[in-house]
Protein 1
Amino acid sequence: MDYFNYREDGELLAEQCAVSGLVAQYGTPLYIYSRATIERHWKAFDAAAGEVPHLICYAVKANGNLAVLNLLARLGSGFDIVSGGELARVIAAGGDAKKVVFSGVGKTEAEMRYALEQDILCFNVESEPELERLNQVAGSMGKVARISIRINPDIDAGTHPYISTGLKQNKFGIPIERAPEVYKYAASLPHLQVTGVDCHIGSQLTEIAPFLEAADKLLTLIDELAAAGIKIHHLDVGGGLGVNYNDETPPHPSEYATALKQKLQDRDLTLMFEPGRAIMANAGILATRVEYLKAGEDRHFAIVDAAMNDLIRPSLYSAWMNIIPVNRALPRDAQRYDVVGPVCETGDFLGKDRELAIAPGDYLAVRSAGAYGFSMASNYNARSRAAEVLVDGEQPHLIREREPLASLWQFEHLLP
Ligand code: LLP
């Protein structure tokens, strides 16, 4: 559930703010987030985990704006990061480094050192060379790094191949068959302390079966490790819970957590989740202005001022994202349009073959754009990245200014 709804007069609202007012004030393209939605989604996970010891580690990659991270930190959230940059963001936002888990296949020595200085909760290690590097870095600092090993359970998450991560052919994690041997090796390294087991099998999953299959495999592994004298304190099941973009019916966090909790009964394990999309996607929209309507030979184009550099999901994954008018009561003729941006690429589209009743100068909203929207934005075609506004009831807050053009070349240098 989210707080983007139409008012009776046809105006789209973000909580109690009319989107038409926000675009008039802040311009377009404009990301608009709802505080109540973000908090509701985070609390749904927290409540779903309930009485079981748990930590919700929000996946910063979904949306790393400091204001968003700060709101989650105020709720007591942990964070899942994949770079030193994301750790710096969490800290700048007032997040607690001691609730941070560090995922990713390519951690550099500098990133490890920084994370150890900040005393993060756990490194989610993805390979043996990484274990060795971390052991060496921690040793050189006179520290012990807490680790979990990311297990690749070889499960088909049934999602897009680019965002499916738990299959054998993916670069992520360690094959489950090799896990006991790698855990024993980790336990033998003096500057590492084994604390957890983790996995992440993919993103935008709309069924719980693959999650439960993965959990079963990990629990069996945890038993095997216990028998070998390696005690595991936490099970991190990753992120991946899907959201409703179109007509998907993803499970509610409580359905997912209830099924997991049944499996965890009588085990002394802290349960960890790393949700990104499920918290942020439907907490945000991307508002854009219709610049031109253009009739092609066999298609009509709505050319808008947002482009693939602002929101790359449709271009990159052929993702379908709902596009709706900011005022649905305007008297317009309906037509089917490809909604495209100004970037010089055929792949620059936000949606294809959408029925819309619009005229130039109208505004559209791309829904479910709060996750992997701004965080994947670029400056391609020398376009400054969009402004971001976070709405709290009737009050909008500008949480990121539109980039001034000169900032695009701020770090470039002419030859002498
Ligand atoms: N944990 C790990 C280790 C991950 O790799 C990811 C996402 C998450 C948690 C969060 O997953 P979520 O709950 O958001 O599904 N850019 C793509 C999604 C890439 C997801 C990568 N990993 C998209 O726009 O669909």
Protein 2
Amino acid sequence: RRTTREWQAADAAHFLHPFTDHQALASRGVRVITRGEGIYVWDSEGHRILDAMSGLWCVNVGYGQPALVEAAARQMTQLPYYNAFFQTTTPVAVALAEKLAALAPEGFQHVFFTNSGSEANDTNLRLVRRYWDLLGQPERRVVISRENAYHGSTLAAASLGGMPDMHAQGGLPIPGIVHVGQPHQWAHRDGAARGLDADAFGRLAAQWLEDKILALGPKTVAAFIAEPVQGAGGVIVPPASYWPEVQRICDRYDILLISDEVICGFGRTGRWWGCETVGSRPDLMTFAKGVTSGYVPLGGVMVGERVARVLIERGGEFEHGFTYSGHPVACAVALANLALIEELDLVRRVREDTGPWLAERLATLRDHPLVGDVQSCGLMAAVQLAREPRTGAAFDPAHAVGMACRRHCFDGGLVMRAVGDRMIVAPPLVITRAEIDEMVGLVRQALDRTLEEARA
Ligand code: PLP
């Protein structure tokens, strides 16, 4: 067995990490995570860490669920792999497609499988182009996305995302993708300064979409893509007025709506799908992460009947797919995972019990001298750090207060994500009230240490 130092040295020598500054990593030393159970993981030094991020928003049923492991082992033994290209299928992929159609909102009967959320969003782009081409409207090419969105890391998915730092590396976005503003709370603060309440601000943010459509020419727009609640952008919960207006605008100009459910899907917001929480009616839905609770990679697109009918009845061959589309082992794990979510009644628990409890407990942090605001939706939440909580005055970005807080969390046995100065939690959906209390206690401790350091 290797020591932690040996793992760190081998890691530094060979492993290029995603979204990581390797110089900074080398100076601090990488943390080696060796096992997990429930909502906790352990590192190679034996420290227990409460994983308030569910890995990367994905381990919805928590770590160490034997039903998922057994499903994978059974499928690997029986048939580890077969494809769906050669006019062939596998019972397990069919069963999962059937199950997802049953769980999806009305009007979704078909699914296209991928390995990841990024590939699923690439698939969306190809699907909407194909759809409009088949309808004889090839001039409908532009896909509108939102600033501050995250939709993945391939060229197309990173272009759909609205992260300036990602766009700056490599000349993104690719042509045909444009962005509009979204109801971010800082913009809302600006709105409030102009006398807008939350609902008026939500309508204004939706109006930015309509303005963009009109500026481009409605007949050139293929689709609008958005997360029901922006996740990686900092858990931006929109005002209640926003989504109904967006839906009205998409309907009015006959624009396809893509709901990116990679984070919000499978119970995170207290419904099976985030669009059900915010009240939108998408034509396409991207999913990944929670479909297998991250135990194995799987993603896909739920294809609503409006698009599916055109593709199937007029389409001929859709020249698109992946070696692992409908991978039997991934599908078997997904089926076991969805069965467990149902058995444990997790979606209702998030909606009626743990989600409201998290909101209540996080609200107790409002008295902390570093906390400007708290926002949550189901089991995804953000704690906004502020230099001046009463006025909401932000920290100078050079302060890197979020990263400092993240470090104090980790040192105190808690994983939280920092998005600028927003601290994020999105714990496994199996978390209990007592565990939420423990988690919020650890958050307060990390805030105290961050404050001490800021004052020193
Ligand atoms: N879409 C959203 C909303 C996401 O949060 C993510 C990943 O965090 C993706 C897409 C990309 O998924 P993946 O990392 O599986 O490619």
Protein 3
Amino acid sequence: RLNYRHAFHAGNFADVVKHALLVAIVAYLKRKEKPFRVIDTHAGIGLYDLSSEEARRTGEHLAGIDALRASPAAEAAALAAYLDAVSVDGPGAYPGSPLIARRLLRRQDRLSAYELHPVDAERLAALFAGDVQVKTFALDGWLALGAHLPPKEKRGLVLIDPPFEAKDEIASIAAGLAAAHRRWPGGIYAIWYPIKRAAERDRLHAALAATGIPDIVAAEFLREPPGAEDRLIGTGLAVVNPPFTFAQEAAAIMAILEQPLGKSGGASSRVVAIASERP
Ligand code: SAM
């Protein structure tokens, strides 16, 4: 268990798309003064050294954040807040979702971050040591979806970014989301998923639809056309209770990312409804 190490993948194309969309959702929450909470159920260590052995072994950030920085797309206004948040540590490092979220918080907002891997949880705790706006937990993130909801702010975002190692990950996501939504129907939930073959993606959509939870959209980015091979070609984010601006913003952000993140011009993106709003 817990074989997945995000250090091999930090700053790759999937991280860029996921984090740019995360920033857009948090920006929406900041339109109101009222405090919000960000809950990161699978947080990782929060900051990745791109010169580490792991990062150099795969070089995935080269076709991700580095390609974006080198392209005219880096000037796009729609990416400014994202690029600001990931550039604080310089080009040799890349922040993870909890640190990106932390950088967007105002004084009244809070972050709760869960990481189950004991070594990673310790690094995450050290990163935020002394920060009164952040709580880290060396706990199972699925627990956060149960007992720890709703947060006292009653507004906010739950990011669910599991490693997809377990065979039954889709079932865990659907069950975890259903339990969470019962406790906190008004929260925004963003669920990351890999896109390899279409059939798997369709199974995830069907499992989310089968929860009966209304108002779910998915933003999907493919960096190359689907082929026969079973490898990561795309990245998805399913959002429950999306901000009313989300579909349009996500489409615009992903369209800008097609050029820098696409493989030989073959990228595409779409925003689709998984479940409609309750009438
Ligand atoms: N969200 C992070 C980001 O965007 O920077 C990346 C997270 S990575 C894809 C998944 C993380 O979940 C890994 O660090 C792994 O150790 C952790 N993990 C695996 N199972 C978990 C569980 N049940 N609860 C909490 N964390 C878990």
Protein 4
Amino acid sequence: WLGLENKVIIVTGGASGIGKHIARTLKDTGAQVVVGDLNAETGSQDEEGIYYVQLDVTKKASVEQLVDHVVAKFGTIDGLVNNAGINLPRLLVDFKGEKPEYELDEKAFDLMIGVNQKGVFFMTQAVVREFLKKGSGVVVNTSSEAGMEGSNGQSCYSATKAAVNGFTRSWAKELGSHHIRVVAVAPGINEKTGLTTDAYNEALAYTRNITVDQLGTDYAKAIPLGRPGRLDDIGNLVTYLLSDRADYITGTTINITGGKSRG
Ligand code: NAD
């Protein structure tokens, strides 16, 4: 139904969390899935047949190496999921004056911009060069509710995701006449991933001036559908967007937040 059999699709950050579920869902459709991740060994394959390449999206040379490797091995690229991302909850100013380490410093700023923004740009640039050779392709970017609504204690992260939304709209305009679609998905509160660790929750609770327990309760209450997002929910949406069934969808960011976010 989806027509993704044998399509070659790269998923960045697919060794963990949401990206891993996207990779698995795509594999179930018969696609040839390549995961590029900081935490991967080039040339390895898992039991499901997903192929791995070591990648650092913050390094243009690493990105270009991945694309060359995939084209040499699989002959083409049909889709790209820009999913690799990091989130360090940090305040603009440590109002309470108790934990200056939770005030955003230059290192954390550069890291978030590097992975979430620069990484998405250069990955897309390298892959779109391949798309243009055959006149088709789909890019799906992983944005966030934070990028649509802003987020208390996560202003830098939120700004990188708003940048992803800007890339999405701009590239859709730039590439539409080449039949290349660019879409983003904006998840909200989800099942735990490698990103939402205890350390993450502690940092977020401090920056929001609440306890970790309150964080959990407030989160749960705020979702109209009454549950956090499942990683499969996101995998299913991304898979649909990569397929020809979504042929008229481009230049937009789709919320997947159980009704919490207006977008
Ligand atoms: P995760 O930490 O479980 O997975 C992220 C993956 O990206 C990891 O495998 C990591 O090794 C990889 N990665 C990190 N830096 C990299 C780099 N420089 N180069 C290549 N790979 C790199 O996180 P997740 O929660 O699955 O998040 C996936 C995406 O979803 C991110 O873009 C995140 O911002 C977004 N998101 C997550 C949530 C959530 O609740 N978890 C909500 C909204 C949006």
